[in-house]
Structure formats: C-alpha cells, structure tokens
Write a structure and sequence with these properties.
With 574 residues, the protein is mainly beta. It contains 1 helix and 39 strands.
C-alpha cells in the first residue's frame, strides 16, 4: 500500500510538474503572441543640438510602429550605444516617450492593417569628430510578414551610425528624416514610395536593400533574418513582385501581383566631400519599410489626380505645377512621355526632362524643360503611357488631366527722352511691341505727330514750354492689359535774358564757355541738344565749361545756383 501510495504521489507530482511546465510554456507562448502582435518595426533619427568643449550634444529619437490591436507601449525605451572601433564599454540611455505620440496612421487603400507611431527621445553627449553605433531590440515581430522565415519568432533590431562630425567636412551632422507610414497599395500597381526626405545637411544619399535584422542591442550585435523561399535581397517581394530603387528621387518603386505583407530593410548612407574632394561617410541609417499589398475592391474605380494650377513665365526653362493630390516622381515618369507640352503654334518640340518636388506633400513640382517658354496659350497633357508607366499617387491613382495655361509676354515699355524742347520733335520707341494685339494711348501737354502701325515708334512735339507732359500707353495681348508711361520736362529755347550778375560767353563758343556770376556757390550745368537729350552735364569748374567734344549746333544751357535755374540758348562752332 505504501509503495502504491508512493507511486500515486509520484504520478500526481509528475502531473503537477507537467502542468506547471505546460502553463509556463503557455504563458511564454501567450506572451510571445502579445509581443508578436503589437510591434511592427521602427527606425532612429538624430539631430545636433549644440557643442560644449570636446562634446557634441545630440537628440536621439526612436520611432516605433505598433499594431493597434496589441499591448500598450512602454513609457521608456532603453537604447544602447558605443563608440565605433573602440574598446570602450557599451553604454545605455533611456529615451522617454514623447507627448502626443501614439497617433493612428492613415488607413489607405481599404487596408485592415491599423497601426500607431510612437516616438521616444532623449539627449546624449558624444565626443567630437567621432562615430557611434546606436541600437534597440526586442522580441518579436508580427506573424503576418510573408517574406521572412517564422516572423513571429524573429526579433526586431533597429540601429544607426551617428557621425558627430569630421574635421575636413563639418563639426556636426543630422540624420535623414522620413514620413511616418505603413506603405499600402493595390496589387499589380507599380507604386512609388518615398524612402526618406532630402538630407538636412545637403549630403548625397545612397541606398541598399539588406536583410531585416534581429539580435541583441545590449551587445550591439545584429544578425540578418533569413528570407522565406523565393525571397532575397535581390527579390525582397519574391517572384511575384518587383522592386526598383530610384536614388536620384529617393524613391522605391514596388509592385506585387499577389496580396502580401513584406518588410524591406534599406540602408541609407550619407556622403559628403572633404577638402580633397573625396566622398566620406557622414552617417548610416537602416530603415525598415513595411509594404502592405491589398486586392482592389470589386468594381473599384480609380479617382485620378488632376492638375490644379500651372504657373509659367516668359523665357523660363521650367514651369510650376500644383496637383489636387500627391503624386510621386521617379526616373520612369515626369518626362516627355507621361507629360506632353504643346506650344502656341501646336508643336511639341519643348520636352519635360524631369521634376523637382517643392514640398513634402508631393503636390508642388518644378518641371524642367528642354527649351524656354514663348508667349501664348500652351497645353499640358498628363497621361498614362502605352507601357503602363504613369505618374502614380496613393492606391493606384494616376495624374491624368489636360490643362491650358498662358505664358504672358513681357510688358510693353516706353523709352525715350524725359527732357524735351518746346517746338522740337522727340522720338519714343516701344519695347516688346511685337507681342501686342492692340494698344491705346494718350498724351498731356503735347501732340503725337505720327506713330507706326505696329506701335513700335512715336514722334511727339511737346508744349507749352516750361511745363511737364506725360505719355501713357496701354498694351493688350491675350486678353490682358499692361500700362507703360513716361513723364517729360519741357524746356524752351530762345530764353536769352541775361540777369545783371550773369555773363555767358563767347557765343558762338569754340572749345570753352565762360560762365561769370557774382555767386560764390557751386554752379551745376546741363547742356541739351534739340532732341531734349542731355549732351553734357557737370559742375562749372574755374568759370569754364569744356564743350570741345560737342558737335556744332544749337543747344540749351541750364545753370543751377542759389536755388535758381537759368536757361540760355548757346551755339557751338568749332
């Protein structure tokens, strides 16, 4: 009986032990399931704050994406770092969850994948002109990824290389920044997505697809996660998909014929030239991008993006466009195939050679042209190309539209003398007259003697004397009007009254005119020809005016002294 009781006791103990182990495994499994269900991915950014002695202060930020159905995120995140190529100990810093984080990301293209973005920040002092590895890790990933082996059993390892500065380049550096998003698109659509924004320091950027990483941040040891069968760095979306990295536009163009979730790890390296014109690495960020390919709904109709505004200026070699929604530039689009320009004569000889985005929302672009713009009504066609390449926006939308826009000509401009003589004819020319459809004009204190039929030239007789006149012209082209005017001071000839204290001789003059006056002040002078143009001006020096370079003829001499003005007719005869 005692033996049987011992056996029963042993069995019960064994059953309890097995049950405890089972419960423990169940708890571990449940814990892993929770962990695996909430954390999707993340990345680092860093910003230079200031310098003190041999130390640089940086703000380190860790952005984490979680599934909205998962467990709560912690208040802090422990990050490990170490100076590169050094035997110094690994250090750690707790980053605090920033206020206002945890916002839901946008749900696009009927995706059921809900996510939130959390930011953790903190500051750290680092040695000048050095490089540091930073890392954060956790277990485990969501089980919904198709392109990596056993995703729910794989860890998350996020890392970056912070370069605090280089002597031959600059004493600081800032990382790239990205727009927070889970990248969702429909299947069978060649969709571009932005990898990162332009480098804030103006560095050149290179991109490389590498395997996602797991590992232990505590010893800064990240290891590549194996791809599923049929997937690789060269084919991270598998045989049913394609990936093109467009470095010049900082875009990645993805396409998948099947519905899937995939994680792509992209290494972004910042490069800058030193004083020897050699490129040096200024920072490395490994950014995991999540792609969610979904099947378009039944009877799905694409609501395409349209042109909202086109701005173009005469003789410019670019135009500005604004779209109703975001569209994304790549080397495959925004060219003379997807965008066609037709000039006012109906020709398509001016090509679009690329686009520069002017805002982070990808609605404002500068289109680069092969030639300059001429005045008139132009037309721009945005279309889908025959090879199925288009200018895509979110969820397969396309920039498809036609818009006319006016390139206004340069405005008309009157040129001619602003001083004239009563009784003489002054000639005025109109610049840019060739762009006018018609014109109207008016004149005060003068008469228009004649004008050319194309408005290029006007002959005017100004008067009465010792007054001011104005010539106003309104030019009309392409339904718009521009006004140009010129004001004229009208002088009289034949004013020969010589006040008692003023003598001007000899008349006619040869090489010099003598000006004798009782005033001890400086006398300024101007000499006008009969067209009202200033032929000579200056100050009377030693009572003499050198007229040796003037041609023979009649002139008007204007003298200014003691707030008085005297006008005299003179004659030059060499």
């Amino acid at each position: 009986m005692q033996h049987r009781a011992a056996v029963l006791k042993t069995k019960k103990h064994l059953q309890k032990s097995i049950m405890r182990k089972y419960l423990t495994l169940l708890a571990i499994s449940f814990s892993l399931t929770l962990s695996a269900s909430h954390l999707i991915s993340g990345y680092f950014t860093y910003e230079h704050i200031g310098t003190s002695g041999n130390q640089e202060t940086y703000q380190i930020s860790l952005f984490l994406y979680r599934d909205v159905t998962g467990i709560s995120m912690p208040a802090t995140a422990g990050v490990y770092y170490q100076k590169s190529n050094q035997s110094t100990a690994v250090q750690s810093i707790n980053l605090s969850q920033a206020s206002g984080t945890g916002a839901n990301g946008p749900s696009l293209c009927n995706s059921t994948l809900g996510y939130q973005v959390y930011e953790y920040t903190g500051t750290v002092n680092l040695d000048i002109n050095s490089a540091y590895k930073f890392a954060w890790s956790t277990c485990c990933r969501p089980g919904s990824f198709n392109n990596i082996v056993n995703p729910s059993s794989q860890g998350v390892y996020i890392n970056t290389l912070v370069v605090t500065g280089k002597n031959a380049i600059r004493p600081y550096n800032n990382s790239i920044t990205v727009q927070h998003a889970i990248n969702t698109t429909y299947t069978n659509t060649a969709m571009p997505f932005e990898i990162c924004e332009a480098d804030p320091d103006g560095d050149s950027l290179s991109f490389q697809i590498i395997a996602p990483k797991g590992g232990n941040a505590g010893n800064l040891a990240g290891t590549a996660i194996a791809y599923n069968t049929g997937y690789s760095n060269a084919a991270p979306l598998g045989t049913s998909g394609s990936v093109i990295v467009d470095s010049s536009n900082r875009m990645i163009v993805v396409n998948s014929s099947v519905q899937q979730n995939a994680i792509l790890n992209i290494r972004v390296i910042e490069w800058s030239k030193d004083t020897t014109n050699t490129f040096k690495i200024m920072g490395v960020t490994e950014r995991e991008m999540i792609f969610n390919f979904v099947t378009p709904p039944t009877n799905y109709v694409v609501s395409n993006v349209q042109l909202d505004t086109v701005i173009a200026n005469f003789s410019a070699d670019s135009i500005l466009i604004v779209t109703t929604d975001q569209v994304y530039p790549t080397n495959l689009n925004f060219d003379s195939t997807q965008l066609i320009l037709v000039d006012p004569l109906g020709d398509t000889n001016v090509f679009i050679n690329g686009a520069l985005p002017l805002s982070s929302d990808y609605k404002n672009f500068k289109l680069l042209l092969s030639d300059s713009l001429t005045p008139g009504i132009w037309t721009i066609y945005a279309r889908m190309n025959n090879d199925s390449i288009g200018i895509f926006g979110n969820c397969g939308t396309l920039l498809v539209d036609t818009m006319e826009f006016l390139v206004s000509p340069p405005p008309p401009l009157l040129v001619g003398p602003s001083d004239s003589l009563y009784g003489q004819t002054a000639t005025y020319n109109l610049l840019n007259y060739e762009y006018l459809d018609s014109a109207s004009f008016s004149i005060s204190n003068g008469n228009i003697l004649s004008w050319s039929s194309d408005y290029s030239q006007f002959d005017i007789e100004w008067g009465p004397l010792n007054s001011s006149g104005e010539f106003i012209l309104v030019g009309y082209s392409f339904g718009n009007s521009d006004t140009t005017s010129i004001s004229v001071q009208i002088y009289g000839i034949g004013i020969e009254e010589h006040p008692d204290n003023l003598s001007v001789f000899p008349i006619p003059a040869n090489d010099y005119i003598i000006v004798s006056h009782s005033s001890l002040n400086t006398i300024n002078f101007k000499i006008y020809n009969l067209l009202g143009q200033v032929a000579l001006n200056g100050k009377v020096f030693s009572n003499q005016i050198d007229v040796s370079n003037l041609s023979n003829g009649i002139y008007v001499l204007l003298l200014e002294f003691n707030d008085e003005t005297r006008r005299l007719k003179i004659k030059i005869k060499h």
